[in-house]
Design a protein that fits this description.
The chain contains eight helices and nine strands. By secondary structure, it is of the alpha/beta class. It folds into two domains: 107 residues, Cobalt-precorrin-4 Transmethylase, domain 1; 84 residues, Tetrapyrrole methylase, C-terminal domain (Methyltransferase, Cobalt-precorrin-4 Transmethylase, Domain 2, 2-Layer Sandwich).
Length: 202
């Protein structure tokens, strides 16, 4: 068994630049018995860079039910587990909620290991009239649902994720609104644009 107590550690990993990992995260990943990761191929790159030899076991949205029982079994055996996503913090528009709920229900500790965040990274680099913001995950796919979301949050700074292949369509639905778009955050070709949606779409 690793040197960590029997605990589920929810570990934030870099959102792009692998140098953004925290010392505490590295120590945790090196000393737990198992790392539950969204994609073992992605997590192995981080582990190889920092000499982490801990066993990687996949845990993604298509395997949550079965793998939740597997990781509960590890904890019952006295093993410690770290949960990571491909980038950023697990459970923030990423898998992990079922596992955290089940682990807490069984009475085990759940410890967050904080780190890089695409949300706060973007917010720190753009002008805003208000400090308040609301994170809504990924935008609804339909124009009607998007319109309802925007109407329900007229007075707030909305922060959301969007996939590259849907970005232009979403920008077209946001015409007339001044927004900020951040892409490739923390990476070599990082870009942050603040303008009206229709101008960015061009």
């Amino acid at each position: 068994m690793g040197s960590q107590a029997v605990t589920l550690y929810v570990v934030a990993t870099p959102v792009g630049n692998l140098s953004d990992i925290t010392l505490r995260a590295l120590d945790t990943l090196k000393n737990v018995d198992i790392i539950a990761c969204e994609d073992t191929r992605v997590s192995s790159v981080l582990c190889e860079k920092y000499g982490i030899s801990t066993k990687l076991v996949s845990y993604h949205k298509f395997s949550e039910n079965a793998r939740t029982e597997l990781f509960l079994g590890y904890l019952k055996e006295g093993k410690s587990v770290a949960l990571v996503s491909d980038a950023g913090t697990p459970l923030i528009s990423d898998p992990g909620a079922k596992l955290v709920e089940a682990v807490r229900k069984e009475g085990y500790n759940v410890v967050p290991i904080v780190g890089a965040s695409a949300i706060t990274a973007l917010l720190s680099a753009i002008p805003r009239e208000s400090e308040d913001f609301k994170f809504v995950g990924f935008l609804p796919r339909s124009e009607k649902q998007l319109e309802d979301t925007l109407k329900a949050n007229r007075s707030e700074n909305l922060v959301f994720y969007e996939s590259p292949n849907r970005l232009i369509a979403s920008l077209n639905m946001l015409k007339g609104r001044k927004i900020a778009v951040g892409r490739e955050l923390t990476k070599k070709f990082e870009e942050i644009i603040v303008d009206y949606a229709e101008n960015i779409a061009e």
